[in-house]
């Protein structure tokens, strides 16, 4: 270290750190792929009906974990190719990135539909006063409200038996069944599509390219001759700057005011497209991820302990998940011939998830502000 | 003042301050009653159909203001009879209070239904992305989101023209029409009931009793012989203590955590009764009012400038209004044969108002904590 300070050119080259990171991610990718095949996840190309039955119940935790690890390394390789592209063979990088994005997308969808269904069903139970409470609720109220809830559940049951009016809980149950039907179907289709993707020649080409990366990273001449600091740092700083610029564009003052009611402003809009107000937040989520990956290259394992960045990133993940869950509830409400009670429950659920969106923005604002204070 | 400090017994008696306050409130009551009659509000006993048409459109601002002033002084007289009952003729006080409560209730209902409808329609417009923004939203976003909203309103209109799917805005409109029908009917009935109450012999007995109060307050012997400080203060302190005890029972730790999701915990419960979790907050609202009135007697006009108490009280008013609006939306959703889109909009609206309930609790928590820090 002391020697490096005295003579920077004798230190590690930019290409060394970059190649080491890409090699480790590529190795991780290939390991996850092997694991996925061993877990029986990639029989690929089989009949969809067979695939469906083999996934839904079996669960195959190994296959799920392997798919997650595959996505994780694919995202990191793709992000690194993007952030440090001047140090890598341009044609090769440019050809590789859309293929990695296609693969990540194909693998992510099944998981996303499953997680969305779980989120919505959990919310339905919470809204019916019969579920676990959010982690942030103080213990003081946990006991209080739980007792209350239990008393109420009894009342509900009685109400349903006695009167014809108490259909809202029936509505919640029907809404849950409808969401389960729709999202399970979407998930099963995504599963088949993922299996087909993993069995395709397009995927084999991606895997071959990753295998190349695991042995020999196609660096430019600059990368091999520039010191790690002067080669990597400006590119990592540029990624951070893109993140900061995007955050500056967010309505953070409003987001920092609790209960600002902004996330539900389009709650009853007829537009079925994703809410335009969410887009800049989703964009920041992606830029934050790129910034995190760039830090992993710069600082290695130590970068992983930046709790503030992790908190901010988790808030944006929650923002994305809640926004998509809210959209799924709204979409289910457009199913023809549903009962009014079902539609009512879906309306409550949609609004609840949009509140989650607002809460996630608030959490991000707090995490981000703390970060910029902490980091000089 | 200096003399009073040297010789407390030479100062004003408890009965003097109490009688002065009750006299002024009684005078205010009689003035408001006269004003209400002059404004044509109290033709009383006329046919309901006639009464309906004469109110809905005419508005009669004078009658509305007079009714509010009547309620205002009735509440203060009733509260004072309660808090300072050891200083007043017991039989007389005990007979008077339920009558004043009956009158306040009869007068309040019409106004409450009107305000509830306005609150719900405003929320529906906001949720359709076509309305004024809440006052607490920072100006930064006001312009931002407004532009966004305008762009979206255009999209909505186009969506409705082009596709058959965009029925949710139709749902919001239908929900608004349904609420307008139901709450206007309830309001009209309350108006008729209020007019009948004001024309009844029961009311004339109340007015006669208030007239007695305006000239001669039925004090006990103690009230006339005890100094203002030693007579009034312990009773006012007891009222404050009842308030503080009730606040201690509130889940303030949770309420102070933004986005704690507690207010919507029963959002889909089948129980049509008011949410049990709201009751302790409503109780604190009433106790806070009694405390404020007691302060008016102790400190006179100066008591009115306690901004913290006013803020806390306003938060609890908002809590009550939002809770009742949420219940009205849920109740409208139980109307037979409504369209699913209408039910969906009512579900979103219900959740939105329950969110307002949660926001009001947060505001109360902040106001109250600030108060207890400020007051030694």
What is the rounded Rg of chain A? 24 Å
> How many DSSP E strands of chain A?
0
Largest interface: A-B, 72 and 72 residues
Oligomer: homodimer
| Overall morphology of chain A | globular
- Proportion of beta-strand residues of chain A: under 5%
Q: Describe the main β-sheet of chain A briefly.
A: none
Enumerate how many helices of chain A there are, as a single number. 14
Average the pLDDT over all residues of chain A and give the rounded result.
82
End-to-end Cα distance of chain A: 24 Å
Q: Residue ranges of chain A: pLDDT <50 for 5 or more in a row?
A: 1-8, 42-58, 131-168
Structural class of chain A: mainly alpha
Instruction: Give the helices and strands of chain A as they follow along the chain.
Output: HHHHHHHHHHHHHH
Q: How much helical structure, as a percent, in the residues of chain A? A: over 70%
What would you note in describing this structure?
The structure is a homodimer of 376-residue chains. Chain A has 376 residues and is an all-alpha fold. Helices cover 75% and strands 0% of the residues of chain A. Chain A is built from 14 helices and no strands. Chain A has helices at 2-6, 14-38, 48-56, 61-83, 90-127, 139-162, 168-198, 201-215, 221-225, 228-248, 252-255, 279-299, 307-332, 340-374. In chain A, helix 5 runs antiparallel to helix 7 (168-198) and helix 12 packs antiparallel against helix 13 (307-332). The radius of gyration of chain A is 24 Å and the shape is globular. The interface between A and B is large, with 72 and 72 residues.
How are the SSEs ordered, and which strands pair?
Two copies of one chain form a homodimer.
Chain A: H1 2-6, H2 14-38, H3 48-56, H4 61-83, H5 90-127, H6 139-162, H7 168-198, H8 201-215, H9 221-225, H10 228-248, H11 252-255, H12 279-299, H13 307-332, H14 340-374
Helix pairs in contact in A: 2-4, 2-8, 2-10, 3-7, 4-5, 4-12, 5-7, 5-8, 5-13, 5-14, 7-14, 10-12, 12-13, 13-14
């Amino acid at each position: 270290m002391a020697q490096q300070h005295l003579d920077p050119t004798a230190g590690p080259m930019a290409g060394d750190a970059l190649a080491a990171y890409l090699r480790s991610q590529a190795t991780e990718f290939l390991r996850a792929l092997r694991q996925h095949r061993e877990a029986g996840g990639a029989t690929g190309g089989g009949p969809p009906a067979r695939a469906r039955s083999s996934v839904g119940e079996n669960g195959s935790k190994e296959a799920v974990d392997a798919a997650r690890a595959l996505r994780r390394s694919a995202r990191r390789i793709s992000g690194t190719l993007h952030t440090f592209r001047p140090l890598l063979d341009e044609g090769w990088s440019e050809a590789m990135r859309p293929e990695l994005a296609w693969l990540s997308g194909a693998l992510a969808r099944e998981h996303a539909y499953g997680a969305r269904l779980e989120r919505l069903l959990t919310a339905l139970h919470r809204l019916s006063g019969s579920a676990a409470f959010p982690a942030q609720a103080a213990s003081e109220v946990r006991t209080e409200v739980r007792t209350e809830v239990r008393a109420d559940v009894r009342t509900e049951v009685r109400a349903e038996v006695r009167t014809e009016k108490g259909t809202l809980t029936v509505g919640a149950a029907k809404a849950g069944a409808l969401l389960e039907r729709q999202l399970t179907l979407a998930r099963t289709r995504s599963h088949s599509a993922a299996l087909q993707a993993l069995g395709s020649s397009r995927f084999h080409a991606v895997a071959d390219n990753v295998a190349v990366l695991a042995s020999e990273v196609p660096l430019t001449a600059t990368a091999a001759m520039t010191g790690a600091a002067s080669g990597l740092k400006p590119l990592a700083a540029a990624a951070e700057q893109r993140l900061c610029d995007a955050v500056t564009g967010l309505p953070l003052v409003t987001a920092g005011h609790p209960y600002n009611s902004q996330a539900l402003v389009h709650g009853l809009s007829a537009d079925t497209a994703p809410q335009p107000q969410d887009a800049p937040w989703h964009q920041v989520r992606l830029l934050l991820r790129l910034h995190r990956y760039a830090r992993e290259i710069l600082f290695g394992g130590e970068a992983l302990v930046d709790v503030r960045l992790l908190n901010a990133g988790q808030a944006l993940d929650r923002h994305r998940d809640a926004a998509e869950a809210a959209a799924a509830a709204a979409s289910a409400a457009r199913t023809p011939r549903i009962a009014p009670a079902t539609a009512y429950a879906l309306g409550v659920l949609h609004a609840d998830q949009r509140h989650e969106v607002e809460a996630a923005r608030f959490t991000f604002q707090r995490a981000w502000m703390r970060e910029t204070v902490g980091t000089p």
